[in-house]
Amino acid sequence: MKLTIQPFDSFPLLVTKRWLNIINASHPFRISFENHSGIVGAASRQYDLGEISSIQINNESDTELVIEYDIANINITSAADGNVKVVNSIQVDSIREEVKVLSRSEVGLGLNSLDDTDLSPQESKMVASANINRKELILQNTSVNPVDIRVGGANVGQRNGGLIKAGGSFVLSNGAAVYAFNSDQSHKAKLSVIEVLQ
């Protein structure tokens, strides 16, 4: 997957698999997550995210950042200079010699633009049903008022789920059913949704 982040901007990424592989990056960047200010991200690195489900990729440079990455449930090391395990601190488990592997990269073969989802204050609603052909789901908070939206499973609510700030976006890499919750007490929320299909 390829991601472009403008100078001094950031991108939220929901990770539903254990390993984040940075295949290529135009320059170093910062990866931050809950209760941690961040670690350095660079090309040819692999991160064991363990229990972490949401990260923020930060471009702190004055030039555009282009990243190629993959998220997987298996540990594949090809040209990585080491494996970094993230567990509220950085711990290097081991540095391994290069391993040659046969791998396959899948790209999205289609897009499905779903209807916008309108959410009343404090309302929870399904925004995308389960789809085994989904590679990613791109969600954007297009609310007129500055409203925060939470996204996640059927139990998403005021204090759980991934957070999409007003004007922000969120990418999910799975085919599960996705729900949204309008955390505002008085304003309606709107969520735009695009499925990337395999």
CATH fold name of the largest domain? Jelly Rolls
Helix content: under 10%
Q: Write down how many β-strands occur, each being a DSSP E stretch of 2 or more residues.
A: 18
- Per CATH, which architecture of the largest domain? Sandwich
Shape: globular
Provide an overview of this structure.
The protein is mostly beta strands and 198 residues long. The protein has two domains: 2-94, Jelly Rolls; 110-197, Jelly Rolls. Helix content is 0%, strand content 51%. The protein has no helices and 18 strands. The strands form three sheets. The chain has an eight-stranded mixed beta sheet, with no helix packed on it. The protein has a six-stranded mixed beta sheet with strand order 1-8-3-6-9-10, with no helix packed on it. Strands 12-17-14-15 form a four-stranded antiparallel beta sheet, with no helix packed on it. A hairpin with a 3-residue loop joins β9 and β10 (90-94). The chain is globular and about 45 Å long. Mean pLDDT is 82; it is low at 79-92.
List the helices and strands and how they pair.
Layout: E1 2-5, E2 10-14, E3 19-25, E4 29-33, E5 36-41, E6 45-48, E7 54-58, E8 65-72, E9 83-86, E10 90-94, E11 110-119, E12 124-128, E13 134-141, E14 149-152, E15 162-164, E16 169-172, E17 178-182, E18 189-197
Parallel strand pairs: 2-16, 6-9
Antiparallel strand pairs: 1-8, 2-7, 3-6, 3-8, 4-5, 4-7, 9-10, 11-18, 12-17, 13-16, 13-18, 14-15, 14-17
